[in-house]
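One record is set out below.
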Amino acid sequence: MLDSKTDEIDNRLKAAEQEIVKLHTETFRLDKVKTELSLFLKTKKKFELKDIEHDVKLFKCTNHVVTHDNFYDKYLPIRT
């Protein structure tokens, strides 16, 4: 059961990494190409929203991993 939870966290992190790569590509494009101010501000707002989403996902994953660590620390010595 814990392996499936760990795999789920790995999959979430891989998806987040892919999103970060996409955002990096778009940031590089915006840095090198001139754009209209309204388009730039709209894209910047999308980046900020994605950044907040990633922060929330990271916070949830961090709490989940801490919970697993606490479980292992508490119950693993009992079994061995």
